[in-house]
Amino acid sequence: MTDPTLLVLDADPPPRLGRLTGRARIAHTDEAQLAARLPTADVLLVWDFTSRAVREAWPGEGPRPRWVHTASAGVDHLMCPELAASDTVVTNARGVFEQPIAEYVAALVLAMAKDLPRTWELQRRGEWRHRESQRVAGTRAVVVGTGPVGRAVARVLKALDVRTALVGRRPRTGIHGPEDLDRLLSRADWVVAAAPLTDDTRGMFDARRFGVLQPSARFVNVGRGALVDEEALAEALAKRWIAGAALDVFATEPLGPESPLWRLPGLIVSPHMSGDTVGWRDELGTQFVELYERWAAGRPLFNVVDKQRGYVPGH
Amino acid sequence: MTDPTLLVLDADPPPRLGRLTGRARIAHTDEAQLAARLPTADVLLVWDFTSRAVREAWPGEGPRPRWVHTASAGVDHLMCPELAASDTVVTNARGVFEQPIAEYVAALVLAMAKDLPRTWELQRRGEWRHRESQRVAGTRAVVVGTGPVGRAVARVLKALDVRTALVGRRPRTGIHGPEDLDRLLSRADWVVAAAPLTDDTRGMFDARRFGVLQPSARFVNVGRGALVDEEALAEALAKRWIAGAALDVFATEPLGPESPLWRLPGLIVSPHMSGDTVGWRDELGTQFVELYERWAAGRPLFNVVDKQRGYVPGH
Questions:
Q1: DSSP label at residue B9
Q2: Where are the transmembrane segments (chains A, B) (predicted)?
């Protein structure tokens, strides 16, 4: 019996795959070769999770991988109708990014409350200028997205005594449904976008929703760039509809040097790094190896994505 | 019976003192007039808590205020041997600053863990550069100072799942004594100075102690500037004995534009603002009015400073 073929979409070999020696024939591919090689693969590991090549390259019919794993929480970059309709199983990296992203959101919330961006600017100019800052305890946050990331964000914000509401696709214990969103937004101090990108969520933070917010509100996106109408956010900041924002994800990544977002007053721009703490690549590699061992043994996989919904359902 | 004379050291009248109309003759003084006016006062309110004029102006003998209140947590700026030896009662603003300062420390810790200063620098240059950041949960902090500020800092850090040790003047339940300090420092990721400035604590963070720290450790001072040997800290940063630091307080405040601290790589400088959230002046005024009403009625005061130790004892 031949070992299954594991095709890895990435120039650099992921860590930990050495553990699969003798149990997988590992081949690497770049985006250009992906379409030609997909039919030969039993398993596809999308290690370069910034790539959108899978959507283009996925075979309409004929031989194809039986299992696709992406080293990311979101699957929007690889899902296409053909993959969704196929019997190929898709898994994601749920479990690796939640705590780091939650801490990152707390870092941004506290940095904005304590006016740290201005502190840095004044430090650069050697200028001592005392300001009053804001207390975080007792403020109100709305977290949109009730997957592992949204729930981890809510947990950390609550630990800081922020009154935090979670909003999901449907109401359930401790979670608000979409019908409550605008009311919650209208009195929020902090709005955190942590939803997967689906047809329901694309562009959900638009001019109307920014208009609902209080002038003192601040917006944070650690989900996917396309959750937000970036032009509407720019306008909301320029017109002082809201007090500030922080984006870690963008409609187009990397953000080009010509983007006006870099220099928008009141906006913090970071390069899609909220979940990436030291050791994260090792964790992703270890998680994939564990999944591969289950798959090779015919045991059930974890982190199986509902391909219609676009995320791992549960809880 | 004449109303007591309340002398206020500040150019601007503090908020809320209007409530004392008909119960106090309120007079304002600047630093220059303080010595001449002190003997006429029953109560001194040190509203300008950056002033060191009380130490100079305190009468050696003869009439003097029976009660001094300072709108600050620390009393180092006003204590002198004559005041300590007198029967004048000293109270402070314990209760106003703790939660804001604790949040500020959390903001600095998270900002350093998530590399936010570098993010701002890169944003200013319009440069997309992904980095790995650090997970805060599971790291180790040492908080020096077990007063309300130190304990609030420890509470917030623990809420972020940081393993936090408190170090005080003597060991007791949940608190380490000075004999544990160096051992704790040697494995700390975060060191927070939140102690009052006393003869015991002055200059306690010196070259030897920075040498004990791990190269990955970061140091935060929200106590008093003179807790730290600033030259030793500058050297520790320049020589990479430690990974970073944040100072909100300095030996001399305001920090002059010529200070090398503004431009020290790895150092975050902020202008003594950690405790000052919106509404803090109102809170300080309300607290003083409440103390005044007790004092005028002959009831016991709260926040009474042990003048030998230099802080409000207890817990």
A1: E
A2: none
Rounded CA separation A199/B195 (Å): 54
In contact, A21 and A294? CB cutoff 8 Å = no
Q: Name the segment(s) of chain A with CATH classification 3.40.50.720.
A: 5-96+279-296, 98-269
Give all strands of the β-sheet with B218-221 in edge-to-edge order: B163-167, B140-144, B190-193, B218-221, B244-247, B267-269
Among B80, B17, B73, smallest CA distance to B43 is for B17
| Tokens 């699957």 sit on residue | A75
Q: Measured on CA atoms in the order B78, B84, B86, B88, is the torsion positive or negative?
A: positive
**Structural tokens at position A197:** 């990108």
Out of A253, A293, A299, A309, the active site residue is: A253
Give the SS3 label for residue B67. strand
The one-letter code for the residue type at A134 is Q
Name the B residues in 156-195 with CB < 8 Å from any A CB: 156, 159-160
Among all chains, which residue has been given the structure tokens 């940063």? B237
- Cis amide leading into B254 (omega within 30): yes
Q: Does CATH number 3.40.50.720 belong to domain A98-269?
A: yes
Chain B touched by A280 (CB under 8 Å): yes
User: Within the 23-62 window of chain B, which residues sit less than 8 Å (CB to CB) from chain A?
Assistant: none
* CA A60/CA A284 separation, integer angstroms: 29
Q: Quote the crossing angle between the two packed helices B148-159 and B98-113, to the nearest 10°.
A: 40
Q: CA B138, B143, B146 angle in degrees (round to 5)?
A: 135
Q: Which residues of B touch A278 (CB under 8 A)?
A: 132-135
CA distance B136 to A152: 14
Per CATH, is A5-96+279-296 categorized as 3.60.20.10?
no
The ipTM of this complex is 0.90
Q: How many other CB atoms are found less than 10 A from the CB of residue B301?
A: 15
Asked if B114 is an interface residue toward chain A (Cβ–Cβ < 8 A), one would say yes
Q: Could you read off the pLDDT of B196-254 as tens digits, one per residue?
A: 999 999 999 999 999 999 999 999 999 999 999 999 999 999 999 999 999 999 999 99
Express each pLDDT in B95-150 by its tens digit: 999 999 999 999 999 999 999 999 999 999 999 999 999 999 999 999 999 999 99
